[in-house]
Specification:
Blueprint lengths: L1 H16 L3 H12 L6 E14 L2 E13 L4 E9 L2 H14 L2 E2 L11 E5 L2 E7 L6 E2 L3 H7 L6 E7 L3 H13 L4 H22 L1
Parallel strand pairs: 7-8
Antiparallel strand pairs: 1-2, 2-3, 3-4, 5-6, 6-8
């Protein structure tokens, strides 16, 4: 009995120390994974057709937004033979066209309204605790930024690509608070300096 226990004990100990096959695979995945700098969100995928002599050629058009959950965001649109190719190409376009958003705490410094083609987007700063009051495309874009409180309204066209571009242009048009507070003072000081020089 004692001999049998001695024989079985090392095996059991060895089995406990050795990790199962699935565990080793998981460990390898964890080692290879790197934290992504940008989050990628696919807003819309359309199937588009081009009419040629032999019939129609179908491709896919992807609308993708990327952001770092801080101050950088970008939108890209691209086409590909399959969905994965279209998404990859649109992501590359979005990363090349990143903009930096001037922020005031968890919201934007002032309201902005911008029109691109038929789509018109209005964004306004909101009090802490309001959250993101936006729908569809605007919410997807604001969701990958550091903005936590915002009011918005999409006017005019419902074309998702135009709304996305209008939102990005509205964010691009924002001016940091310190700049628009100091602008009137510098304008008043400038004539005084010119008068001193004339004397």
């Amino acid at each position: 009995m004692a001999e049998d226990a001695a024989k079985t004990t090392p095996r059991a100990a060895g089995q406990n120390n050795r990790s199962p096959r699935g565990g080793r695979r998981d460990d390898r995945r964890k080692v290879n994974e790197e934290p992504k700098q940008f989050e990628e969100v696919v807003i819309n995928i359309d199937r588009v057709a081009r009419v040629v002599k032999g019939g129609r050629r179908f491709r896919f058009k992807a609308l993708v937004v990327v952001g770092d959950h801080k101050t950088k965001v970008g939108v890209g649109v691209s086409k590909g033979q399959d969905v994965q190719t279209a998404i990859a190409k649109a992501t590359d376009v979005a990363k090349k066209n990143l903009i930096v958003i001037p922020m005031q705490g968890d919201t934007i410094p002032h309201d902005a309204e911008l029109k691109v083609s038929g789509a018109q987007v209005l964004i306004k700063p909101a009090a802490p605790g309001t959250g993101i009051i936006a729908g569809g495309v605007v919410r997807s874009i604001i969701g990958v930024t550091g903005i936590r409180n915002l009011l918005s309204k999409s006017l005019g066209s419902t074309n998702k690509v135009n709304i996305a571009y209008a939102t990005i242009e509205a964010l691009r048009s924002l001016v940091p608070r310190d700049q628009w507070l100091n602008a009137p003072k510098s304008a008043k000081k400038a004539p005084e300096k010119k008068g001193d020089e004339a004397k």
